[in-house]
Amino acid sequence: MKIAALIVAAGRGSRAGGPHPKQWQDLLGRTIAEHTVGQFLDHPRIDHIMLVLHPDDIADKSRLWPQDKVLITPGGAERAASVRCGLQALVPFAPDLVLIHDVARPCLRPQVIDDVIAALADAPGAAPALMLSDALWRGADGQVQAAQDRQGLYRAQTPQGFDFQSILQAHQQAHLQAAHSPNATPAADDVDIARRAGIDVQITMGDEDNIKITHPQDFERAAQIVRKHMNTVPDIRLGNGFDVHAFGPGDSVTLCGVKVPHDRGLVGHSDADVAMHAITDAIFGALADGDIGQHFPPSDPQWKGAASDIFLRHAAGRAADRGFELSNIDCTLICETPKIGPHAQAMRQNLAQILGLEPGRVSVKATTSERLGFTGRQEGIACIATALLVKS
C-alpha cells in the first residue's frame, strides 16, 4: 500500500498580509511550508510527497527540501487546478492512496494523519472535521437575521484522503464540467469534488490545533501551538546504579529480595541485597536525587539489618511523586557463585511486584568476571542496574 501526500502551496495568500505569500513567511525560524511538509516527511506511512508550487516559486523554494524526498510540480490559477496538477504529477508513482493537505495548516499532528489513513481501509474517502459547538446566526448588514441550526454541521480540515484513482477521475470530471458550465458553483474543497462524483467520505476526528493560517493574527496562534507541541516531548530519564558487597559468614544471600542458599552470606549494614541497592541507585540517578547512602545513611542504626525493599519502594515512590512512571529496569549480577539462573525468574517476579511492573519489564541476568578481580576470586558480588523513567 503506497500513500502519497499532496500539499497545495501555489496560492498567494493575500489576506494573511506580510511581504510574501503566507506559506513563505516565518514561523519560529522556519517557513510555514517547511513546518507543514515536515509533518509528512516525519510520518512513517507516507511514501511520496508532492508539493504544488506557484511557477514563480519553483526555482527558489524547491531547494528547501531534498529532491529525492519532496517532488515539486507547478500549480494552476486556482486551488482545484493545483490539486489536479499534483494528482497528474503523481500518476507515474502509482500511489494507492493520496492525502491532500493545505500548506497553510502547519500545526498538523500525526494522529490526524493516522486516523485518515485508518479510515481509508474501509472507505474511498476520509477527512478530519470538528463538530460545531457555538451557536450559529444568519446575518446581513451587521445585523442578526435568524438562528441557524448547527445539528449535523462540521468544520472541515485537511488532509483529506482518497483512493488515488477515484479522486483523480473526480477532479478530471469536475474540470470538464466546469469547462462546459463556467457559471456553476465551484467546489468548496476536495471532499466537495468527491461527493459530486459519488464518492463516499467518512468523517474522522479533527484537531482544534490544526488551524489554517488565513489572517495576520493566525500567525501568533500558530506559533503558540507549535511551541506547545515542542514542549510535549516526553521527559525520559535514564539512570544507572552500581553496588558491591563482600562475602562473610552465613548460609544464604538475599538478591532481589529472594533468599538464595549459599555457603556464605553478604556483609552490609542492611540485608546487603546488592541487586536492590543497585536498582535503587539507578532510580535515584534518573531523578538526579542523590544515592542510597544519602537517603539511608549506613551510620543510622535504624537501617541496620533492614530489608532492602524499603529502600527500593522509597525510590519508586519519589519517582511517582515527581510524576514519573518506571518503564523498565535491567540489572546484571556479577559473581562466580552462587548460580543465579535457577532463581532469576523468582527475582523478576518479586521486583515486578514491588515496583508495580509487568514481569516483562524487569530483567535479571548474571555474568562472571572470568575469574578476574574480587568477584573472580569469589570475594563478593557486584551488580549494575539501569532504570528508565518516563514523565506520566
Content of β-strand? 25-35%
What is the CATH homologous superfamily assignment of the largest domain?
Spore Coat Polysaccharide Biosynthesis Protein SpsA, Chain A
Uncertain residue segments: none
| pLDDT averaged residue by residue | 94
The radius of gyration computed from the alpha-carbon positions, rounded to a whole number of angstroms, is 31 Å
Q: What proportion of the residues is helical, as a percent range? A: 25-40%
Shape: elongated
- Per DSSP E runs of 2 or more residues, the count of β-strands stands at 19
Biggest β-sheet description: 8 strands, mixed
Report on this model:
With 392 residues, this protein is α/β, with parallel strands linked by helices. It has two domains: 3-136 and 146-230, Alpha-Beta Complex (Spore Coat Polysaccharide Biosynthesis Protein SpsA, Chain A); 236-391, 2-C-methyl-D-erythritol 2,4-cyclodiphosphate synthase (60s Ribosomal Protein L30, Chain: A), CATH 3.30.1330.50. The chain has helices spanning 32-41, 58-61, 79-90, 110-119, 164-180, 190-196, 218-230, 274-287, 292-295, 309-321, 344-355, 373-376, and strands at residues 3-9, 26-27, 30-31, 48-53, 71-74, 97-102, 125-131, 136-140, 143-148, 154-156, 160-163, 202-205, 236-248, 252-255, 258-261, 265-266, 324-334, 362-367, 380-391. The strands form five sheets. Strands 1, 4, 5, 6, 7, 10, 11 and 12 form an eight-stranded mixed sheet that branches. A five-stranded mixed sheet has the order 16-13-19-17-18. It has a two-stranded antiparallel ribbon with strand order 2-3. A hairpin with a 2-residue loop joins strand 14 and strand 15 (258-261). The longest helix is centred in the middle third of the chain and has 17 residues, at 164-180. The mean pLDDT is 94.
